[in-house]
Design brief:
single chain; 637 residues; four-stranded antiparallel sheet; 17 strands; extended
């Protein structure tokens, strides 16, 4: 009976695999490599979405076959095994896979939680102490809650955040994304008037009291500032009188932006008529913040003072934070600054350990603890070397056993003592190694389980190979092979006729003055007649440095002011302010047709590349087999 059940189970798996393949049949086989319908459809639709005139299916099949033949040629050349290819492809594949290797339910929950925080601002007080004094702070919290003392008195006496301690613990406005996550989370979990439990922000321990809250928004303002910083009392009093005078001028109808340009002492905004960028709560100093957010849009505040001086605000507008989708990417980016960034991946890792049947070998860690004691009970080079050579089985994943030797390179250097502590450290490291190995397996399986990922990976992989093999066979060959280019030009010379139009062919030598020009012309005469342009230019630069510039020109009448003057009797163009005001033609002559490929290089190179491409594709068609399943082709949607 059990054999029958097992046989049915195996048959079921085989049928599922067969069903998956039949749902995505082989469309064509290129050089023995199958191309499935889904890949072809993905690229076909992507290509047509990018074309002004969509290609017909038959046209695209021809182009696609050529594309795959070139990829096959790249593989035959071993390009896919080079270190450069492997490094580039692996980096892209891993970056592309990253969004798939997280628990999206955890990520979505964190995004929603952060967005809820963004909907309001909290005005808070806090008391901060050094870590290690949790019990002390908890007892002080209890005393505050039962009324034995006040929050303000405890803050002044015990808080190590000196600026807020002087104000009885008052911090100001707390907004989402501005403070360490544990602090933000505790603040937003605490109701107005309540005191949070003791929390550790990573910078110290805190209790938080929420004083009030308001709807979160951003404001757009103009302002005028008269500075009082580092001024005497009498000078500061003059600024108070001056800001009152400015306010009266505004009340009589003066243009705010004009007054700000003339009289504001904030150089950053004065030039813009006092205009500040949109800002949210907590960005400005408390006094400025309180006035800006309390006043209605379209109004002008009375003068008020901050630590910088006297201000007047014109509030232009205010806006909400936008929708969750509008803020989603920014919220996710903010997770990289704290522990939230690791939570979705950590949860995914735990799921993959289960999926791939990961299991720590508890007996191994009991053995490691005893072994560590036998080796002296302290992590040192002897113990590390001994463990690093051990084949002791520490965990199993996907049916494969992993050894202590495979885990030890990841164990952090530690001064731990005692076998139990050492074993615990190795155990936690082994769990992380097992988790990363499980994620690697999930990444490899993505190609089989996620069509979008598979198509993007295949497209990028083939794209790298296509570029490199095309560069070797077409682009670089056409650019670098001068002899072949000249042969192609000679065989197709009639194609590049100018119809009898005269053009002036020459080097133009520019110089910083007439004497250097004369010397440069003499030096140029010493070069052989068949010197190539690149060598001619290099030798001139080596000899004269930046005092001379060389240009090679071929131009008909009316195409270039300098050649018009030098060859066609035109007026001399003014060049007084140029670095090289002196110039002359060297070996210049009029020609009625191109003499060499260099005379029409752009056209010849383009045509030569097209010819190389044509001949290459013909050779690929003869070299590699192509089989197309026309029945499957009819299924293309």
């Amino acid at each position: 009976m059990k054999k029958q059940i097992l046989a049915l189970g195996i048959a079921g798996v085989a049928l599922l695999a067969l069903a998956a393949k039949s749902a995505d049949p082989v469309l064509m086989t290129i050089n023995g490599k199958d191309v499935r319908l889904s890949e072809f459809e993905y690229l076909y639709h992507k290509n047509n979405s990018q074309q002004v005139e969509p290609q017909s299916l038959d046209e695209y099949v021809e182009m696609f076959v050529n594309y795959k033949l070139k990829v096959a040629d790249a593989e035959a050349a071993g390009i896919d095994t080079t270190a450069a290819f492997v490094n580039e492809f692996t980096q892209f594949r891993d970056e592309l896979a990253a969004p798939y290797l997280v628990d999206n339910s955890v990520l979505d929950s964190l995004v929603e939680q952060n967005y809820m925080h963004m909907s309001k601002d909290l005005y808070v007080s806090h008391i901060m102490m050094n870590t290690g004094k949790e019990a002390v702070l908890d007892s002080l919290r209890t005393a505050i809650i039962n009324g034995s003392t006040t929050f303000e008195d405890v803050a002044r006496q015990y808080s190590i955040d000196t600026p807020s301690a002087r104000r009885g613990g008052l911090m100001g406005w707390v907004v989402a994304g501005r403070y360490p996550w544990p602090f933000e989370e505790a603040a937003f979990k605490t109701a107005v008037g309540e005191v949070s439990p003791v929390i550790n922000s990573g910078y110290g321990i805190h209790i938080i009291r929420v004083e009030k809250e308001r709807r979160s928004c951003e404001v757009l303002c103009e302002h005028i500032l008269r500075l009082t910083v580092q001024k005497t009392d009498s000078a500061a009093a003059l600024e108070e009188a001056r800001i009152d005078s400015i306010y009266n001028e505004l009340m009589r109808g003066a243009d705010f932006a004009d007054v700000a340009r003339r009289l504001s002492e904030d150089p950053g905004s004065a030039a813009k008529g006092g205009r500040l960028d949109w800002f949210g709560a907590g960005v400005m100093v408390n006094e400025f913040d309180s006035v800006a957010f309390a006043m209605p849009s379209g109004t002008i505040s009375r003068p008020f003072r901050t630590s910088y001086g006297w201000h007047i605000i014109h509030k232009i507008d205010e806006r909400g934070k936008g929708t969750l989708e509008e803020n989603r990417e920014a919220i996710i980016r903010s997770f990289g600054n704290d522990e939230r960034g690791s939570l979705p991946r950590r949860k995914f890792m735990q799921q993959q350990i289960v999926n791939y049947k990961g299991k720590l070998n508890d007996k191994a860690f009991t053995r490691i603890a005893k072994w560590a004691e036998e080796l002296g009970g302290t992590v040192d080079s002897t113990m590390t070397a001994t463990f690093a050579a051990s084949d002791l089985h520490v965990f199993t994943l996907n049916g494969k056993k992993y050894t202590l030797a495979q885990v030890m390179p990841q164990v952090p250097v530690s001064a731990l003592k005692g076998g139990e502590q050492i074993a615990a450290l190795i155990r936690s490291t082994a769990f992380n190694v097992m988790g990363e190995a499980a994620i690697d397996l999930a990444r490899e399986d993505l190609v089989n389980t996620n069509p979008d990922y598979r198509n993007l990976v295949n497209e990028y992989r083939d794209g790298i190979l296509l570029f490199e093999i095309s560069n070797r066979n077409v682009w670089q060959r056409a650019a670098d092979n001068k002899d072949e280019l000249e042969q192609f030009f000679a065989a197709n010379r009639d194609k590049y006729s100018w119809g009898g139009t005269e053009k002036f062919k020459s080097y133009i030598i520019f110089a910083s003055n007439d004497s250097i020009l004369a010397e440069a012309m003499q030096f140029a005469e010493t070069m052989p007649l068949d010197v190539v342009p690149a060598d001619f230019t290099k030798q001139m630069r080596d000899k004269f440095g930046r005092d001379v510039k060389v240009e090679r020109v071929i131009a008909a009448k009316g195409e270039n002011a300098i050649t018009d003057f030098l060859a066609f009797g035109g007026e001399k163009p003014t060049n007084d302010n140029a670095r090289w005001p002196s110039y002359a033609a060297f070996r210049g002559r009029l020609i009625t047709a191109p003499e060499e490929a260099a005379d029409v290089r752009g056209l010849v190179v383009s045509d030569f590349q097209a010819d190389l491409e044509r001949r290459w594709v013909e050779s690929l068609r003869a070299k590699y087999s192509v089989k197309i399943n026309n029945d499957v082709l009819q299924q293309v949607k």
